[in-house]
Amino acid sequence: MSEILEILLGLGDKFAAHIVLAASAIGLGLLVALPLAVWASRSQTVARFALGFASLVQTIPALALLALFFPILLSLRAVFGEDLPTLGFLPALLALALYALLPILRNAVTAQANLDPGVLEAADGVGMTSWQKLTLVEAPLSAPFIMAGIRTASVWTIGAATLATTIGQPSLGDPIFAGLQTQNWALVVAGCIASAGLALVVDALLGIVENGFAKRNRWQYGAGIIAVGLGVVGALAYQSGGDDEDTIIIASKQFSEQYILAQLIGSQLEKAGYSVEYRDGLGSAVVHSAVASSSIDISVDYTGTIWTNELGRTDNPGREVMYQTIADWERDNTGVRVLGRLGFENAYAFAMRADRAEELGVTSLEQLVPFGPQLTVGGDPEFFERPEWIAVRDAYGMRFGETRNFSPTFMYNALRSGEADVISAYTSDGRIAADRLVVLDDPREALPSYDAMLMLSPRIAQDEGVASALEPLIGAISVEAMRESNYAVDREGEGKLSPKEAAAQLAETLDL
Amino acid sequence: MTAVGGVSCTIDHGSFVALVGSSGSGKSTLLKMVNTLVTPSGGRVLFGGEDVTTLKQSQLRRRVGYVFQGIGLFPHFTVGENIAIGPRLAGEKLSDARIAELLTLVELEPDMASRMPDELSGGQRQRVGVARALAGDPELLIMDEPFGALDPITRDALGVKVRELHEKFGLTTIMVTHDMAEALLLADRVMVMSFGELVADETPRALLDGEGGEIAQSLVAVPRQQAERLASMERSENPA
């Protein structure tokens, strides 16, 4: 418990960022929804169209909606110029505001539709203009219902804002995502407590406002609004403390190795006098575009990933050629500087439990083929769509009885519990050694290489200070060292380290 | 479809006119053209010699008090605020004394001004509705089935009260009703509408004397027969 409390106390900046994001999204949602509701109350067509659109948006999973704003904003750069941010606050704000639209709009439209026609006739009869009718009659009578919509929207938005982490916007999702990846449940629980607690408090305060509107008690709704306002202002004040231009932003994807390397890079830069900031848990798909657009400054990416996703290549020219081709391609096409390779590979490989492999008598993919139809294979969510799987399938004629998707962390649990017989493991994964897994040979060289590379955004590509601070990492990290470090974070119980601690230990091993 | 057509008439200052007809005859539509709640596709309504559609809407509606079946008190305003709304829209503040006076005129207690509409009975609410219509010192009072939703006793009392106020302030009043008895008892002049047209325009006396044509007479026949049946019941129970 004290551990969770300690984490909670350290969440101040995430908490403030979360409040500012959610409040801005609801505010923007209101700015759009209320005029739209007024318009809708005067036109059936608008009402149908607006509600239809808002409902449609609601059917898109929040995570997908957030991710979709990245390509949308990227294409909008053609109009608004290169300074338009594509990650972080802006896309999170837009996606969440869209999400907040429906409950506010629906309640406002319903409230308007249910106003007593006699009262509206009287408003005309006494000579109100349509503006007077809106402000003196329609708005005050609809207010409690609209407030109920705002409450619903707020609870949804505060919850969904945790997903903003995946597009590089700090929020209370940061501890949740980091905790899920590193199996640090205290982090997950702390993140959940903070965001659920925030939602409950906001719901209660807005409930007071709603009740005040219904009872037409000025003191009551005034007090509620002031309390909410103070919370937002407090969060804004807290947030405006830090932030300066020279900060270098280090990104990490959603797995332990990335968290550790980000911390390692960060500590190297801090030693050299730079101030750094972390964008943890970015979606894998957005990291490359983010570094290419200088939304972030440093990432660690893998040759195989860039090869297929960015260069669109499916061939396998071998490890060295692949790396050189990528480094040249980045320099010529995106302006990203590939500083070098860290030394280890995090490639896809097929792994089995040692006892199971022995039982079947297999040590290579070739030998596994005849047993395939009786086996269940587990892969990360993208694996069975990836060219690696297609290459293996085609090179060996591999067929499995059942294929299942797991998040990387749970994949190893599935292997342990027998829910999967073979998994698509990663070569740098600490659990390969810890679980004494057998990595099957790939005699036909179907699987491409995945060298870890340091990528610098165009913004800092020419910064020799950064380059020299990171130089000692190039070629320095062996796959064994990386495995050990990853395992320290991924393991449970005694000896489990946070990514930061593991990074410090790794730095020590590397003599930095 | 034409809701109202072929209506041409003049209403004198100070007269109390009842507009009678069955449901869907166009009487409410005709009435609402007077304060431009309905705008006609053709034809004109002149008020004091001016076309109502050329008058400033807020000014027009102050000069024309409007009372209707739905009452439409604003539920979030007190009784006093409801009465004062017309002048308030014109930028005037109605004094508490004036609100008390208006409440007294419609036979309500002056201290009712601070109550909310949902604390009142239906009859009390319509009295407030009448007070609200009178608050701006209108020249013309138009009423659309004003007593339609009230119980008979309240209805009768309020009808008499409105006629009395009409006299007192020298108003011109147009009342839409489907109840011929009410029209005959309150108005100086009864106009009968059918399918959007004006089919009779007579004094109550003339209607009772059989004037006004078939449709008007079929409407007069209802209360007359009711009265005769009641009278004969009274006679048979009191043979002496």
Can you describe what's shown?
The complex is a heterodimer of chains A (512) and B (240). Chain A is an alpha/beta fold and 512 residues long. In chain A, 61% of the residues lie in helices and 11% in strands. In chain A, the strands form three sheets. A five-stranded mixed β-sheet of chain A has the order 7-6-8-5-9. In chain A, strands 3-10-4 form a three-stranded antiparallel β-sheet, sandwiched between helices. Chain A has a two-stranded parallel ribbon with strand order 1-2. In chain A, strand 1 (248-253), helix 11 (256-271) and strand 2 (276-282) form a beta-alpha-beta unit. The radius of gyration of chain A is 27 Å and the shape is elongated. The two termini of chain A are 35 Å apart. The mean pLDDT of chain A is 89. Chain B starts with 15 loop residues before the first strand and ends with a helix. The model of chain B has no long low-confidence stretch (mean pLDDT 90). Chain B is built from nine helices and eight strands. Chain B has 240 residues and is of the alpha/beta class. In chain B, 43% of the residues lie in helices and 15% in strands. In chain B, the strands form two sheets. A six-stranded mixed β-sheet of chain B has the order 4-5-6-1-7-8, sandwiched between helices. In chain B, strands 2-3 form a two-stranded antiparallel ribbon. Chains A and B meet through helix 6 and helix 7 of A and helix 2 and helix 3 of B.
